[in-house]
Each structure stands twice: as C-alpha cells, then as structure tokens.
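Posting for a labmate who doesn't have an account.
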Amino acid sequence: MVGTRTSAHVWTTVRPARRVAAIVHNITAATRLFDVLHLLADSRVQVEFTVPGSSAFTAGTEEFLTGQGIRVHPWQSIVDNPPDLAISASLGGDLSALRPLLVLPHGMGYNKYLRETGNGKRETGNGKRETGNGKRETGNGHEGAFGISSESLLNANGDLIPTVLVLSHEEQRTRLARSCRQAVPISLVAGDPCLDRMTASLPLRPMYRRAFGVAPGQRLLVVSSTWGPGSLFAECPDLPDTLAELPLDEYRTVVALHPNIRAWHSDWQVAAWLARCTRAGLTILPAQDGWRAALIAADTIIGDHGSVTFYGAALGRPVFLATAPHSTVDPDSPIAQLLHIAPRYTGDPTAPCPDLTSVTALATSHPDKAAPLLRTEFYRLLNLPEPTYPPEVQVVPTPLVPPTTPAAQLIHVTLHNNTAAITRHASTNLNSGAYNGTHLTVDTTASPLRRELELAEILIAPDPTTAQELLHSLPGALLATTPLPHDRWLTLSRHNTHYVTTGLPTSHGPLGASLLHHLLSDHTPPTVPLTLTIHCGPRRFTATIQPAD
C-alpha cells in the first residue's frame, strides 16, 4: 500500500496509525529515550527521531543516532507536521508547538539547577541557580531544580510546556508543588526505567565483570563524572592518573564521563587528556553507554553529584565522593542528601562506606514498574488500545570495550624458598622513587614509548626470531620473552641461554621472565628445572622453569 500524508511523509509498505516524535536534545537524552521507546514497538506506531538543536551539547547527536540505524528528521518538519505524540527526555527549544508532549527525566529524577553555558544556551545544571535580578544564589528558596521549576516548565505566555511530566518518585511531586504548582495535575509518578533495567541485569554481574577483564579476586573501581564546574573531572582531573598507580593484579578501573564532556571538548581532546590513563590500562567508556554495566560490575564507585553516582549507590555499591558541590543541586533533592552522607574519597578504595539506602530509596516509588506504567500512558495519549502482550524490561547489554594491558609494567619480585610474591604496576611515572627494586617489562607489540624501550630490562616479543633480534637492537635489555604453543613462554638471555616457563596463564606468561630476572640478579645461572608457587595479587599459580630444548 502506498499513500501520502503530506509531501514530507511518504508511506511505503506500512502506513502506521500513529506517529510519535522522539525529541533528542543530546546523547544523554537519547540513551534515556532508548530505555522506553521499545515499549512502542508496534506496527501501528511510527517513531520519528529529531534533534531540535537547542542544547549546547548537540554535537555528535545526529551521528550517534544514524549509527544506530536511525533516520533523523529535520526539526522544522516535525514542527510543521506535528506527530500524534512527542516524547522528550529534556526541556529545551520550542517544544510548546508539540501536543501532546510527554517529558521524561534524563537523569535520576530532578536535582540540578539551571546554568548558563559558554555559548549563551542554558542547560540543566552544574551552576548555581539564577534569581530574577540576574544574580546567582545558593539560597534556600523554592525556585526548584531544572525540570520541575516554573522557569523550565512554563513558556513565555505562562502556559505549561509538557502535557505530561513524568516523575520517578513521589518526593519530586512534593518539590514540584512548591516550585510550579500548576504542573502538579499533569505529573505522573511512573518510576525509573533506567534503574529498572539495571536491577533486572543484576544476575548478569559475573558476565559484565568478565567483559571488563576483572579476574577473580580483583576489585573493579568505577570513576564517574558529570559535566561542568564542580564535577569530578573538572575538580579532580588527576584522579584517574592516581588510580592508575594501583597494583594491576588487585584493581581494574573504568572511567565513565558524562557525554556532555566529549560534546563540548571533542572526543580527541578528552582522549588526549586521558592518554596516560589508557596507556596504564584504565578503561574509558564510550560516551553512549557501558556505564550501567560498569555500575553493576563495580566493587567501589568514586563519583560526584551526577546521576550515575546515585544509581551506583541505589544498586548497593559503596560510593565515595571526589567532590560534593552542594550549591549546584536542590538542597531538598535526593542527590543533595547523598552529598551529605556519602564519604569523601581519601585514597583508600577499600574504606568502609555507610548504608545509603535511606537516600537511595528515593530513586523510585515504583520499583520494576516503570515499563507498564509508561506504556499505559503512551497508549492513552495515542488513543490506541495497548498491545495484549506484557511490556518487557530490556537488560543492559554487555559492554564491547575490550580491557587493555599496560605496554610497560614495573614489576617487583620477592622470593622466599620456593614461593614468589610478584607485584605489577603500570609504568605511569618512571622517575618515581616509589618503584625502587623493580624492573621494567615492555611489550614491544603494544606501541610503547621510546623511553620505555630504552629503559626496558625485559622485552616481550611476538616470536623467538624477533626476540633475539630485539636483544641486539636494544642493548639495555637483559632478557626477551615470547609465547610458544601450549601456554609455554620462551625466555632468551643476552648470553644466549634459553628457558621455558609453563604453568602461567597467557595474561601472566611474561612473569616467567621476571622470575628469571630476579634469579639472575646475582649473575649466577639458576638451578633448573625449578618449580615455584607464585602469589600475584589475589591469584595463585604454580610455574616451572626449565632449560629450553
């Protein structure tokens, strides 16, 4: 069947009964819309995506959507040919022309004040609230957080912008009544679909941990930063570098940055700022997703006043604050309460954390019920009967960010009888005196730095021939090691003696060369074959070193 509605809409094959516009202000809003748009997977409904361009952080949004296989419609075409329902996860731009309009929170409820951005646009906040005289205050009035304030909910004529304002908890309705009373009748407390997805995904925690490369006994640290002044990334930009100095076998670290940081500064700039961290083995999550799986997999979260930090606490994870800018959030909001009771990060990721459930209970009034509540509202606004099948909750996808291993590692070996204790650190600072008594192992296939090659005492090579050649071309190295079939590792010395180590997993295979480096430190050839018990962080191995055939 082929038909036309207007010149802008040509229907082929299927002519849906209703059109829904997904209003995408930025990547953050897009990910929140994806939490609920599957509830409209119905042949009677056509979802059309559009980017209004009103956000200061629009950069990359259209590319993100097209990368998901989505056709992006021009904003003006949606305004000129209004849909049967518009759904937005933010307030910004001329939304008043779209009726009915349902507005979802694009974070954990409504907590932050509005702030000015550098280009004159205004965004939900990391700045102090504006008063009528243009001054900024931290005051204790009831102007309200962005999304539930009169300033954000009323247009220039004083009319309500949304037709339905979705809240996640009843406490938000209490604050809404103080800041914009006329919006109370249009409010709908429907829970939190994002939190519901994470809760449904909790049984998959072991799978997510493996995806992040977390070995048994390792602790996964998640560093979360929102955007703007007062955020972790703004106030503590060196924190990821500090965490990169933790022992490699005891910790893995994942960094989750708010998408607005990349949208404002560019992917290249953020990658440049974090280059030392990535070289040290930290995983930097993509802007679009991955943070939810990281929160589920985490042992400890270090964050700020962003929603991701709060969600981590709501999942029962220990939370520490690197920064707590109280002036940027509504003092009556759940996040403000979290900033008061969560401990500050003091450098010990294993420190005790108090019970935070009294605050995190404010995340949702309807746990695991957001999908049915929202679908019912969508179809009511569309004037369509709901599908007969139940609304489903989609679990969080497994992250596709492969864990990395530092190309250069500083290794300390302590040997007592036939037991060796080995500690590995990324070589983040070769000038540091903290690594006395260590030797430097460099993987030549992982793009090491020139200085690392020059200082390397052990070279990791792809094959025996290359290993031998590298010992000649890099005279500072004492040993070279390379993998062999059947989980064996060959180590070559500068004096043309060869050893084979067995019993180590691939991830720790080069440690055979580190053991030999320690045994050869007194210039006496080791007595081989030699079997050693190796303690490497929480893991235990039994390795045998013997002469090569």
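Reply:
Got it, the structure tokens are right above this. Residues 87 and 540 are 53 Å apart (CA to CA).
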